[in-house]
């Protein structure tokens, strides 16, 4: 079947694109559109053309799977120019998303109309590239340079009403898109036509504007190359003739397409889309999820409840007494009130989200829930007691999940009569924000229960990654090795502050020591102490020395660094130097690049061990864990990708 079909309603022709799943602009589609322009130009009965798409979306962009291969004709910039130069005006009728090359096609059309919930955007920077078919050159001619810079440097799409206000589209269609677009086209051909977008004027901001924009982009890009390159391309559009700017854009696009960063971001793009639907579970039906309960309303429980409410499901919160219920509900309310403060929610929306949470101490309330997620204190006895009660009151098919981060789920499930519906679901704090969800089945977990864990991940718009059982699962196990390696460098004489600076320079938001000061050194310390108490041979760490001296991080006024009250900026600590004296070699001259190479190499080595043991299914899964749970820079592709391509 052809990916492009043409129909005629009187003097308006309709070109329909049907190239599932997202109408990406592969070669066949580009050729089909090219031929359609020629055919309709040659048809004297046609006065205007509506371009519309079948399926869930308008053209979602270039076909990313083609990026690793040599470009094949017709090239996208030529196709956009061909549509723009068509003898009949084309009207892009947008539903779903018009992104990247899809939006560039729409920019070649004389008019753009869209359904109210459609979105348009230039997400190329999220793939390590810039638009390559006029996106940076035509967009500012419609909406002005500032809006174009915002769109193209962040990659964030705009909804149709905002796009209309910005001048990027000509109308928002209510009701049937095709009917509305045909009516729009009929009216438009009775008026003088506007200029093609390429022929419209563009403003030229002064040097100060570009300086500010460059500073802002350098700050937010944190090492990613594409945002500053897309800015340069828009500047060229503002300062050079159209054709020169198009050449500049194309050259930049072609250069970036072949870079390591683009390859990394493409790999992550496809891994993120594959993760929620593992091949092994393709034929396994998940159990329906209509009502979920969470045990424990602390920070983690409240975050999980908020995430479930955001997905529209009612939640029951169970706590051990009325005061704890009240505190838990207040923790949830704080999350939604924060949304109001940040302008993300109206008061009414926040209230509706809060109203969907029922707090109680009565386990009998769980008789009809489909899933329970336990998020109580990380202590085996406490957790077992919870599951003993759940086993007694819940439906036999209800999925029972623990949010443990370090305990062995098999030991928690020992109290359960039918452990096939038991699973580990490890959320990351704040659970309503962090994308990662580690899914940890036990040997007893049924395929349906596992599939339901993934279904929850999809429902909550998380990145679910399956992990086998080991100390810390995938993410915290690698974190432990990373921190130990960072301490190893300190022992070898590398200053703490230089290690943190190296990892920030690498693209993480924080280095390993600053991060520990923020989260608290005591949690890991207590785990080590627990293991020691059980007779395990756990060597004394530098962190142990600090905790024993009362330095647990920012909350105690100091950890690896000192902190002045009310100021979160770390200050190099003479006290720490004194405490660690004798443990630390004289200062060595390791560069920041060398430091990052060592630490990322250690992460990758632990990742390889995790793969070898069958704890993770693929290097891509490990990379998703580090990117979405631990702030590893996305454009580096994750530690496994980065070490394969030798950082
Ligand atoms: C570009 O356009 C460059 C140009 O400026 C210049 C060129 C010269 N290509 O996300 P979903 C697949 S750069 C190939 O789950 P949703 C995806 O892998 C591009 N495949 O759907 C998945 O496959 P599978 C700029 C693609 O409904 C399936 O489609 N455009 C592409 O949740 C469904 O995807 C973008 O960056 C693609 N471009 O969301 C847009 N896109 O079923 C990227 C998706 O085998 N796409 N697939 O796992 C999106 O943001 C979302 O897919 C979209 C739909 C919002 C459209």
TrEMBL record:
Residues 472-563 form the 3-hydroxyacyl-CoA dehydrogenase C-terminal domain. Residues 291-466 form the 3-hydroxyacyl-CoA dehydrogenase NAD binding domain. It is found in: Peroxisome. Gene3D superfamilies: 1.10.1040.50, 2-enoyl-CoA Hydratase, Chain A, domain 1, NAD(P)-binding Rossmann-like Domain. Keywords: Fatty acid metabolism, Isomerase, Lipid degradation, Lipid metabolism, Lyase, Multifunctional enzyme, NAD, Oxidoreductase, Peroxisome. It catalyses: a (3S)-3-hydroxyacyl-CoA + NAD(+) = a 3-oxoacyl-CoA + NADH + H(+). Monomer. This is 3-hydroxyacyl-CoA dehydrogenase NAD-binding domain-containing protein.
């Amino acid at each position: 079947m052809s990916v492009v079909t043409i129909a005629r309603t009187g003097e308006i022709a309709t070109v329909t694109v049907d190239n599932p799943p997202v109408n990406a602009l592969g070669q066949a589609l580009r050729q089909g559109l090219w031929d359609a322009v020629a055919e309709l130009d040659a048809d004297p009965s046609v006065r205007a053309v509506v371009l519309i798409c079948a399926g869930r979306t308008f053209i979602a962009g270039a076909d990313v799977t083609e990026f690793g291969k040599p470009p094949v004709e017709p090239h996208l910039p030529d196709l956009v120019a061909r549509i723009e130069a068509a003898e009949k005006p084309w009207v892009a009728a947008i539903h779903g998303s018009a992104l990247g090359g899809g939006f560039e096609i729409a920019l070649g059309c004389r008019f753009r109309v869209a359904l109210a919930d459609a979105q348009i955007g230039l997400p190329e920077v999220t793939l390590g590239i810039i638009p390559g078919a006029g996106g940076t050159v035509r967009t500012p001619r419609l909406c002005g340079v500032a809006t174009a810079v915002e769109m193209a440097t962040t990659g964030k799409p705009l909804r149709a009403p905002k796009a209309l206000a910005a001048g990027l589209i000509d109308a928002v269609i209510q009701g049937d898109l095709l009917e509305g677009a045909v009516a729009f086209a009929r009216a438009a051909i009775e008026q003088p036509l506007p200029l093609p977008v390429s022929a419209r004027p563009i403003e030229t901001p002064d040097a100060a504007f570009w300086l500010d924009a460059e500073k802002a982009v350098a700050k937010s890009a944190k090492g990613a190359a594409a945002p500053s390159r897309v800015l340069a391309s828009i500047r060229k559009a503002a300062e050079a003739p159209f054709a020169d700017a198009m050449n500049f854009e194309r050259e930049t696009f072609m250069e970036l397409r072949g870079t390591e960063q683009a390859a990394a971001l493409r790999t992550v793009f496809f891994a993120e889309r594959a993760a929620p639907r593992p091949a092994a579970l393709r034929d396994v039906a998940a159990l329906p999820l209509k009502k979920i309960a969470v045990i424990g309303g602390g920070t983690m429980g409240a975050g999980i409840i908020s995430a479930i409410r955001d997905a529209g499901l009612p939640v029951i919160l169970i706590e051990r007494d009325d005061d704890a219920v009240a505190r838990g509900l207040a923790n949830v309310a704080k999350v939604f009130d924060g949304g109001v403060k940040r302008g993300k929610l109206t008061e009414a929306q926040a209230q509706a989200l809060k109203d969907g949470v029922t707090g109680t101490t009565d386990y009998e309330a769980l008789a009809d829930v489909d899933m329970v997620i336990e998020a109580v204190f990380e202590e085996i006895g406490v957790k077992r007691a919870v599951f003993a009660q759940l086993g007694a009151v819940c439906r036999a098919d209800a999925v029972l999940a623990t949010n443990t981060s370090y305990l062995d789920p098999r030991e928690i499930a020992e109290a359960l009569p039918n452990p096939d519906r038991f699973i580990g679901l490890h959320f990351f704090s704040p659970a309503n924000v962090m994308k990662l969800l580690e899914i940890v089945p036990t040997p007893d977990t049924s395929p349906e229960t596992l599939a339901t864990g993934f279904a929850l991940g999809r429902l909550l718009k998380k990145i679910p990654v399956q992990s086998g059982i080991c100390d810390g699962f995938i993410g915290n196990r690698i974190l432990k090795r990373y921190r130990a390696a960072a301490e190893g460098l300190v022992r070898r004489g590398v200053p703490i502050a230089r290690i943190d600076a190296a990892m920030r320079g690498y693209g993480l938001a924080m280095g390993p020591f600053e991060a520990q000061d923020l989260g608290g050194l005591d949690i890991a310390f207590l785990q080590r102490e627990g293991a020691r108490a059980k007779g395990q041979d756990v060597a004394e760490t530098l962190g142990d020395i600090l905790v024993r001296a009362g330095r647990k991080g920012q909350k105690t006024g100091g950890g690896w660094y000192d902190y002045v009250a009310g100021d979160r900026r770390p200050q190099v600590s003479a006290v720490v130097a004194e405490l660690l004296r004798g443990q630390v070699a004289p200062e060595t001259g390791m560069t920041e690049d060398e430091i990052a190479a060592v630490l990322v190499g250690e992460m990758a080595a632990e990742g390889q061990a995790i793969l070898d043991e069958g704890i993770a299914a693929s290097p891509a899964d490990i990379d998703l864990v580090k990117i979405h749970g631990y702030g590893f820079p996305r454009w580096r592709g994750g530690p496994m990708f980065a070490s394969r391509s030798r950082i």
